[in-house]
Amino acid sequence: MLLSCQNAAWAYDGNVAASGLNFSVAAGDYLCVVGENGSGKSTLLRGLLGLKTPCAGKIVYAADWRGTDIGYLPQQTAAQKDFPASVQEVVLSGRIGRLGWRPFYAAADKKAALNNLKLLGLERLRGRCFRELSGGQQRRTLLARALCAAQKLLILDEPLSGLDPSAAQNVYALLQRLRQAGLTIIMVSHDLRGALRQASHVLHLQNKQKFFGTAANYKKWLEKKHV
Ligand SMILES: Nc1ncnc2c1ncn2[C@@H]1O[C@H](COP(=O)(O)OP(=O)(O)OP(=O)(O)O)[C@@H](O)[C@H]1O
């Protein structure tokens, strides 16, 4: 078990955004978090990252858990679009959590950045200024950055937003390969069909936990709901 949410809830100024969350994620799982706008998905991700403290319940992490093992792709925000740095620098910054006492990046950091730039088809753009890129190119750059950070767990908040169909397919194929290589993935997505093709587990939120289980059982649950 990598992490387990035990009756956890989060609120903003007393207004509950998500409550009664009980689920666990094992190493190698691919969990897709679904639900309508405002159902608490991003709040949960921030909770898992330790950026927002639960107002009830708790999250229990594996004994050997280190916060630096996580790569995180946040939801797109206006502020992110204005980074005055090159694509390569943004991707390399995914290694910051691993620098420890070192004041500079090592050859291994630069190699990892280059590798992830290639994986996301960004090699040609590496010298370009991040803020001059298209929305989809920026999204891929931030995904490459998250990959640079992800040792054990990749947390993605709508990774496909702004991507054209072929770029989205490439990201799905990449996630599949990463999972086969042993990475655990937690992803918020509005592309239910695409997510269900790949996910091992689904968590459906509506400010509460409506469903948690395997993707196969989620399909059955959806069918029952609609008869
Ligand atoms: N910083 C904040 N301050 C106050 N309320 C917030 C804040 N962030 C989110 N909320 C509220 O918490 C609830 C859940 O929001 P959240 O962003 O987690 O939903 P979501 O499922 O990720 O939505 P979307 O699909 O639109 O991204 C919403 O009612 C939202 O208005």
Report on the structure:
By secondary structure, this protein is an alpha/beta fold. It folds into 2 domains: 1-66 and 152-227, Rossmann fold, CATH 3.40.50; 78-150, no CATH class. It is 33% helix and 25% strand. The strands form 2 sheets. Strands 5-6-7-3-8-9 form a 6-stranded mixed β-sheet, sandwiched between helices. It has a 3-stranded antiparallel β-sheet with strand order 2-1-4, covered by helices on one side. α3 packs across α4 (135-149). The longest helix has 16 residues, at 165-180. The chain is globular. The protein starts with a strand and ends with a helix. The mean pLDDT is 91. Bound molecules: adenosine-5'-triphosphate (ATP). Adenosine-5'-triphosphate (ATP) binds at residues 12, 17, 35, 37-43, 75.
List keywords for this structure.
227 residues; 33% helix; binds adenosine-5'-triphosphate; three-stranded antiparallel beta sheet; 2 domains; Rossmann fold; alpha/beta; globular; six-stranded mixed beta sheet; 25% strand
Produce the secondary structure layout.
Layout: E1 3-12, E2 15-25, E3 30-34, H1 41-48, E4 56-61, E5 70-73, H2 87-92, H3 107-119, H4 135-149, E6 153-157, H5 165-180, E7 184-188, H6 192-198, E8 201-205, E9 209-214, H7 215-225
Parallel strand pairs: 3-7, 3-8, 5-6, 6-7
Antiparallel strand pairs: 1-2, 1-4, 8-9
The structure holds adenosine-5'-triphosphate.
How would you describe the shape?
Answer: globular
Q: Helix content range of the residues, please?
A: 25-40%
Q: In what range is the share of β-strand residues?
A: 25-35%
Unreliable stretches covering 5 or more consecutive residues: none
Biggest β-sheet description: 6 strands, mixed
- The neighbouring-strand order within the major sheet is 5-6-7-3-8-9
The hetero compounds bound to this protein are: adenosine-5'-triphosphate
Output mean pLDDT: 91
CATH hierarchy class name of the largest domain: Alpha Beta
| Terminus-to-terminus distance | 35 Å
**Which structural class best describes the helix and strand composition?**
alpha/beta
Overall number of domains: 2
Question: At CATH's second level, what is the architecture of the largest domain?
Answer: 3-Layer(aba) Sandwich
CATH topology of the largest domain: Rossmann fold
